[in-house]
Amino acid sequence: MNKKKIITIIMIIILNINIFSAKTYVLGEDINIKYDKLNLFLKELNYDLEKILIVEAYNLDEFTKITDKPYSYYSAFFIPEKNIIITQPFRILKEKNIYEITLTHEIIHYYLTKYTILNEFEQESVINKLLNLNIKKYNKFDKFTQKDMFIYIKNERK
User: Fold this and answer.
1) How far, in Å, are 9, 51, 74, 77 from residue 68 at the CA level?
2) Strand, coil or helix: 12
3) 58 and 124 in contact (C-beta within 8 Å)?
4) d(CA 92, CA 128)
5) If you average pLDDT over every residue of the chain, what do you get?
6) What is the DSSP string of 56-101?
7) Phi then psi for 35, rounded to 5 degrees?
8) pTM
9) CA 35, CA 23: separation in Å to the nearest integer?
10) CA 8 centroid distance within chain
11) Do residues 23 and 46 make contact, with C-beta atoms less than 8 angstroms apart?
12) Which of the four pLDDT bands, split at 50, 70 and 90, describes residue 18?
């Protein structure tokens, strides 16, 4: 593990002990997502499943305090500067039946941020297309086939 990642994990642990009750997980170790669209994304772009730090907020207020984002709009949030995903409590995501799609959405942000030059709007548009979310605001790639979408992403690599 690189020094930056270790420092991030230590900071999260300190925050958990001193301020928040959030739980931390590592994708691929503590959490496994069995969502076909994520597997397709990883396979088509030849990405390995990486160990991504995921922080589950204890409650909705804690989610808002950690992310500075309203829980009424965000279910999870990827923080690129820290390479971590913060989520609402898993039980809430599961009750809403959005657990896997929410984590997949943020995991894709992780990969698109790390490996491409796509801006936030383009990332949301790619995710909108790949996950069939049909959000009109992010319909930039609606006319693309899935194959064309993956070609586009490959052409936008860093």
Assistant:
1) 20, 24, 10, 10
2) helix
3) no
4) 22
5) 87
6) E-SSHHHHHHHHSS-TTT-SEEEETTTTEEEES-HHHHHHTT-HHH
7) -120, 120
8) 0.83
9) 22
10) 17
11) no
12) very low
